[in-house]
């Protein structure tokens, strides 16, 4: 009897314990499913049996409209809808998962409308809802699952703004049939980008909370997307990065450093990147907000990043944005003008006429804003280079250099320093006036020559006489050199031919009578 009773006690307790443990396990599994589901959906883990994941919040159906739930449940519904959008689809096949794709698209549109309406309402109104930390976390995971991806290999040899085989020396595509490559997933991607932009700019998002999830890792992955070949994606990224830089002040130094690293890699290593123009456009607005006096960090950025960015062959793709950034620095601190001009002279494109025309345009823009002190620091090497451009056989280069004298500010600077500048430029003008093949360049050279004569007649005559003397010396040296060669040829022709001695072949010996 005792054995029977004793044997029953463990079975009874084990049954109750097992029942209790079963209830606890069910409760724990439900809680763990709620907590871990966004991670499994956002990452590359195994997917659930359903096409869309189950609701993150128990009792909340993700397809329910926001208007059908009370304000107290809207954040839970927001998390459920965001988690539903973590599933990715193959957009290369339009017939695959078409229903599910449409559901995701409509859900993303609903989320964009919800965030926009929350931001539009005043913080004190009843319609205003503050985004909770789980909602911010869920949105960041959804954006990471949809946006952060590896781009397919470049099927074209030019590779965007790389200046490679498909580009000419000025960075322009030789093949006019090449068009930008558009991502087939853009119908969903642009909604995700729009949602992220609305979310970052929303007044209902606390920056102190959001910065924990839009952190350095998130921003680095976002910057990597600027290498996309789709110009629509780069344009969205440009706006988002600009808004993130404005909202998260704590991340500003890191963003600047990360962009600098992209520029360094582009200039000194690869010369291949599709988003340099967009990144420079973002930096243009950043530079305009720099406080005065400029920090040493910002001056280093000008000298080590912006000036060397003139070097790559593909500079024509981002030249306007680059010039704007440089001018922003000069307007902030005019003392940097001479530094910029020396840098441009260092990277001057000797054999690339199209880049040379662009450099001349930037030089003119800088000279239009330069002061006299900075101008005098660089006027000798600068006008020596301009003189070389005036003598260029490429008519566009020579014409662009001569157009400097159409600018009243530059003419005024030259007039005040004519004793130094005119002797440097005068020989180039005289050579053009005598022998340049292009009529437009010839006429412009004569006009500038006449302007110098009217500016200072005595200096003009002095330069002209000096030029004639130098030309006479050059002609005399050429005649002496010719006579020396003739003597050598005559002496060589009188030597007997023995062994392997080289034989001088005269023009008469090789002439053939027709």
From TrEMBL:
<dbReference type="GO" id="GO:0005737">
    <property type="term" value="C:cytoplasm"/>
</dbReference>
<dbReference type="GO" id="GO:0007165">
    <property type="term" value="P:signal transduction"/>
</dbReference>
<protein>
    <recommendedName>
        <fullName>Serine/threonine protein phosphatase 2A regulatory subunit</fullName>
    </recommendedName>
</protein>
<dbReference type="InterPro" id="IPR002554">
    <property type="entry name" value="PP2A_B56"/>
</dbReference>
<dbReference type="InterPro" id="IPR016024">
    <property type="entry name" value="ARM-type_fold"/>
</dbReference>
<keyword id="KW-0963">Cytoplasm</keyword>
<feature type="compositionally biased region" description="Basic and acidic residues">
    <location>
        <begin position="14"/>
        <end position="26"/>
    </location>
</feature>
<dbReference type="InterPro" id="IPR011989">
    <property type="entry name" value="ARM-like"/>
</dbReference>
<dbReference type="Pfam" id="PF01603">
    <property type="entry name" value="B56"/>
</dbReference>
<dbReference type="GO" id="GO:0019888">
    <property type="term" value="F:protein phosphatase regulator activity"/>
</dbReference>
<comment type="function">
    <text>The B regulatory subunit might modulate substrate selectivity and catalytic activity, and also might direct the localization of the catalytic enzyme to a particular subcellular compartment.</text>
</comment>
<comment type="similarity">
    <text>Belongs to the phosphatase 2A regulatory subunit B56 family.</text>
</comment>
<feature type="region of interest" description="Disordered">
    <location>
        <begin position="159"/>
        <end position="179"/>
    </location>
</feature>
<feature type="region of interest" description="Disordered">
    <location>
        <begin position="1"/>
        <end position="48"/>
    </location>
</feature>
<dbReference type="GO" id="GO:0000159">
    <property type="term" value="C:protein phosphatase type 2A complex"/>
</dbReference>
